[in-house]
Description:
By secondary structure, the chain is α/β, with parallel strands linked by helices.
Amino acid sequence: MKNVLKSFFESFLRSRRMLHHFERWQTLLGSKPVGIASAAMPPEIANALSAASLADAGDMLAQLDSSPQGLSEEHATALRKRLGGNEVNHEKPLPWWTHLWQCYRNPFNLLLTVLALVSYVTEDMKAAVVIGSMVVLSTVLRFLQESRSNKAADKLKAMVSNTSTVLRPVEGSDGALRIEVPMRDLVPGDLIALSAGDMIPADCRLLSAKDLFISQSALTGEAMPVEKFASVPATGSTSGVLERDNLLFMGTNVISGTATALIVHTGARTFFGALAQRVSATDRGTTAFQAGINRVSWVLIRFMLVMAPLVLVINGVTKGDWWEAALFALSIAVGLTPEMLPMIVTATLAKGAVVMSRQKVIVKRLEAIHNFGAMDVLCTDKTGTLTQDRIVLERHTNAWGEGSDHVLQLAYLNSFHQTGLKNLLDKAVLSHAQMQLDTRLQTDWRKVDEVPFDFSRRRMSVVVAGSDAVEEHLLICKGALEEVLAVCSAVERGAEVLALDAEVLARIHAVASELNAQGLRVVAVASRVLRGDARRAAYGVADETELTLLGYVAFLDPPKESTAPALRALAEHGVAVKVLTGDNELVTRKVCGDVGIEAGRMVLGHEVERMNEAELRRIVEQRQVFAKLTPAHKERIVQALHANGHVVGFMGDGINDAPALRAADIGISVDGAVDVAKESADIILLEKSLMVLEQGVVEGRRTFANMLKYIKLTASSNFGNVFSVLVASAFLPFLPMLPLHLLVQNLLYDVSQIAIPFDNVDEEFLRKPQSWNPGDLGRFMVFFGPLSSVFDILTYVVMWYVFAANSPEHQTLFQSGWFVEGLLSQTLIVHLIRTRRIPFLQSRAAWPLLIMGAAIAAVGIWLPMGPVAHYFKLEALPITYFPWLLLMLGGYAALVQAVKGWYARRYGWQ
């Protein structure tokens, strides 16, 4: 259980799909969600929150030394110094010794350590030193690389830190100023203002709430949002702490409504933080990316489990020295293990993250880079992605399409007085109206109440009263046309008020459709005068009835100039783009046509609603554009694509996008997104552009290509060496290479691969999505490994017959000859297999890889020829050996190139 819990908590703290992992945690535990959470809550925290729930609001403010205007900045700073930041313990970096241990403890390093200990016990100090060097090199390089990566990631994450709206008292008055403060700087006693899209940053007590709905599924598993109230529960209430209506908990989020809340507990003292603290000593769960690495590793381990015993038996039987055979078999096992894989993977991903950061893409999880490259379907909203995200108010008309300043005035009052989620449309109304209208409009009307926006109603209302008209209130409603019409009974035309009969409705829809066809987004404006008994101090959704439609405000969001070429570039790289929008079909069709997307037969939200899963899975393959969608519709479409085997990316920035962001394989958001969207995403864009995404896809594929190179090169090369050893063991009266030689050769080869993360990648590899394919790796090993064995065997023949190294007395010369040929052929294979093209001519490796390969080849030749040859039990080779060596390497290159072409035509070249 602890492993599952810790996997979730670290995922949250690293900004990974929070809600998805909590639901997965609850499912794995196999119990009712509320019971789990309640049982897990420490008694001291439960008691404190229960007391806060039952206490009077004034008493709670006094207990926390706060006020209705919030804490002063000086008081908050002093509390922060004393209590620490609003962070849970897992956000602190691991101690260096813990990190070092995690870098060491992989199966390959453990195997090498066992071999080093065996060598030490048998007094083979040279082998022990070489093997120990391999372990130290792998561990230290990974440790240094991950440390650098973590520091870089922390700097990048700091650029997209979430904030909360905090109340600060204004000196010399009873007023309060609202400022944005990083969540980590919050302290108990702070008052925060909440609206749709906000994350709850700490455990809080509500002081006021208006139509506040909270998604608590992260804690309780409840699928539906729950409404919260500021009222104190009845004395003697037996409801659980999580069920208290006036408590909010860290990690949940606001779906709709507004509220003011008092922070009671922060950081590790929250319910969420206390659970994170409990599991701090346990291991992280395995991510999907790591699972792919593990599947590939097991292919190599299975080969090792077959080949090492074969080498042991053949050498034991033919040579009669079972102890020597056992050591040699262990060396073979080491030779088949890609011990540098963890370091190569980390370095490659880290380099990809750095490159992407230069392109204004912040990677919150290194593993997400692989998913970026594997993505074959990108689902995106329309606004701000296909369009400029620069919405301007283009028209303000009555219901008949005639210009109307009255409609603009009421739309302005609605946008100005609402305290919920102000979107780009509201900002466009305010900006336009301030230039067009009399500024006295603000002071002529006072706000009475509001009915906040939510995504089921798709409208919001404010109630205002004129400064000289205390006997009546004016309810102003603004929202999507169909949803506003649903609560209207009449329409205004000049001085007339007409009933909404079929003819009038047809005219209204015709005007709206004409505006939509011009690419304008239409928002309806309606009102109702409330007199007598209809007036009240607080209003709700039930009051949105019997309204009179006044007209429209119409907005223009022009397409980006870069959208069309970006869509073409994504298509060329095998990524299909699907548009998922809540906008209507006419505007969507116009924008899609402008950017070159063939909308065809669009699928609308109500159609998605009626489809079962099988129908939806079929439709998502056939259609490209989906309009008038709710958040649940977007999530279902993403899930259907995923179920069809696609790697799905979703790009969104609103609270309505959060479910789809969590459901996607890779969630993509932007720096200006609402908190819950950024928390749900894997990647944050500092620039909302499809062109940036296309660059990210290419970098993801380049990163994956270089990881795959190392695995394929190491696996096939090492397998070829082992196959050669099997053949030699059956016929030679001595070992073809000592265990020490195998280990030194393997170490040198691995060092040469350190430069792979910086290698170039052929353009054709970047044109289609890539993913792990263990089956292809096994086939690749079987085909290309034995090719090197052909020339290894020819080397045996040359050393045996040409240089007379055909007896145990001359085995050192034989072994030296094969050591050099084996190392140089391994170095050469890097350049042969890294590309489908002709190496050096049509495709050349990056300079770091070329230089590293040349340096290792030089060291390999120097070892038997230099003064340290006796230390490694090698001897100098005659000059006449090197023409033979060149012939072997040339023949090997020609054979690999020929087989490579045949293999690529038959099986493809990943």
